[in-house]
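I have been asked to look over a protein record a colleague put together. What it holds is a sequence and that sequence's fold in token form. Please read both lines and tell me whether the tokens look consistent with the sequence. I do not need a full report, just your reasoning and any doubts. This is what I was given:
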Amino acid sequence: MKKTLVKICGITNREDAETAVTSGADALGFVFYPKSPRFITTVAARNICECIPDNILKIGVFVNADDDELAGLCTKNFLNYFQLHGNESPDLCKCFPGKIIKAFRVDRNFNKNLLNKYNMCSMFLFDTRIKGFYGGSGISFDWNILLSITHTRPIILAGGLNEDNVAYAIRVVKPYMVDVSSAVESYPGKKDEAKIARFIKACRAESSG
């Protein structure tokens, strides 16, 4: 099986970023949603990214961001992708070719036809639909829902992944990348080195490339 990449999301400080990279993470996520307990300013995120190797993907997470905010970040050129977790339109996504990861919140009523409207995006991320949450809920959804979806974009799987279930999730969904946040924390906004190491070890045991 092709290696599944690992993204550690909700990075708020340099120490956690370096720990994630040292542990084998392939991507880091920075949450620019002010209501999140993992919120980070663009200045702080940029300072962290400048200390991280170029081969590590840097992904900004947004909820209902406007095009001016995203355009401003494009000029700063420290993020590889914008992960859009809200109700962003296809027209907004078209403005940033090659940069957009569109997140979809999944429950048993998920409308898979919605994906067709976002074919301009680079990747699709699937997370659990929980009222009041835009990621970081720690709750998983029924991954079998994704098996009936025909898609042409790499999949990022999120939502309730942890060291105990991620290997099975990789086996079922075969995602391009898995995304974890709350399961590798000591508390919201602070990562736990041992939990990160165990999560990545579980991923590599199932998907070693």
